User: Fold these one by one.
Assistant:
Number 1:
Amino acid sequence: MDESVSLAQLAHRLEEVVGELRGIPVDVERLDDSELVRQQIAQAARSAGELRAMHPVGSPEKDRHEQKSRRDVLDALRRGVAMRTIVHASVLDDPRKAARIRELHAAGDLHRVVDEPIQQLLVFDRAVAFVRITPVAYAPGALVIRQQSLIATLVDLFEQTWTRAREVTEPAQRLTPREREVLALIAEGRSNSAVARALSITEAAVGKHVAGVFAKLELPATEDDNRRVLAVLAYLRGAAR
């Protein structure tokens, strides 16, 4: 599916929903108190059977609070709650957050990663959604949405983003945008010098990026394998995006 088309369709659907709701009471509540937001999220989580989540940044919680949050997620998974979570790639730059994400992914909270900007979103059972009031990291407050037409649109947004996202277990999620550019040009059969000319950087810089790609794709130097070819194969399989 063409991404620009799908986003345009989504925007059109949002306009339709807004039009349908004109003059109709909308079940959207604004909560400016972050503690009250946490309480309502906890209440929704206790009875939920399914959770869709998008997180542009990692949790600000530390130590005891972070451990409690982790235990709550694991307890929910043991109760049989189906969880899918989309995170922005920048979250994985923090080794501690990356380790937690991989642990939860292995436990059943399936994670995918995107490079595009996303907003904070929680949708429980297609029944209630929480959206941050302002699209700023750790900003206080949230909109609590129970209007079914709006929730359906948010679910569509989540599912389209999920389809485009990549698995959190793919080593390529750690590649920088420049490393992905270098790998894409290598896949076209270009030499390091040709890549350098195409990107207007030095050949030495290309060499460093290539070494970074090899390390992040876990391709050690051996006499039997050509790492350049293996990296290209990973790119062509879609495992290096």
Number 2:
Amino acid sequence: MDLPSPPGFLRRLAAAGYDAFLLLAIWFFATAIALPFNAGQAFASDQFFYPLYLLGISFVFYGWFWTHGGQTLGLRAWKVKVSALDGRSPGWRQAGIRFLGGLLSWACLGLGFVWCLFDKNGQCWHDYLSKTRLVFQEEKR
């Protein structure tokens, strides 16, 4: 059985860029919902709730799409899909591990993403940690 090919680094980066714009819009909306609970004032740097709130919103965003079909809008636009190693959509546990692994990959100055350029399977750190993979979906004719 041939495994679908992994997407290249630039395709991964482009999909992440698309999703970053969508996530930014969701953060604006989530902030508008949260502001009345802070007396309409901007959140201060010592208020730890707000960053945790946005982190939770981010996880729900990615987790929902990964567990329900494996594609965010950015992944769909670039014909890429997240799947478990058995080909199915990942579960919430795998999505959580993938999300935290992705944060780790970014926190190490993006090294976890660049890893796919040198990995024989074209996988990133968070792919290995979560036992998931990104696959390129070629056009069906």
Number 3:
Amino acid sequence: MATRANDSRGTTTNPARSGSRAAPRAADMRARRYDPAETKARVLAAAHMLFSRNGFAGTGTADIAREADVSEGSIFYHFGSKKALLQELGRRHGEAMIAAMEEGYALEDLEPGITVPRVLRFVRDNMVWEGADPDCADCGPKAALASNADAEPFYHAAKAVTTDWIKRHMQAALAKRGVTGVEVDIAASFTHHVVGDAIDRWLCAATPEEADRVERETVRYVRAASGYTLD
């Protein structure tokens, strides 16, 4: 036993061996730990988890820093403020929603019969960010976020991203079909509000049949706003 202990000490205190292996490894770990992109990604992941678990008001930057294993100063360095962090998360949420709607289609080939069902299911699968209780009977994510001042930066950032996409999509789809005379800025804003209300109704529908009716009517309404001829 004594011989093995001495051998172990001799191995760990040999400067030639420890200096050649441990120092580069420690340097690599420091580089990974303080890589700006990795740090920012860890902060966003931690914030996403804590906001969804504890709510917007119940999560502070110190909580996020502990969860991300960074200094609180790193959060302010990369994002400036909790509000800016929420805005970044809102933008990313909106971009993820857009990716779900676009998947497999060119922008001009998408139509409400594709995008509306996809956005409804995206929100259902990402309820953690929509703020609604899955067992709600008289509530919805739009109302929940709109009534929560701490959620406002997230909500408005996501809204800005998705409304801009709705406008670009409508412009592309209308141009492809040769439809003119649609005030796209107004129609895009209205469409965002209509779909937001539809999400509330669809998620909180009392029966699957009611949810199906909400989905069908939303598709019909958005198709009309987008200049499609209704059957």
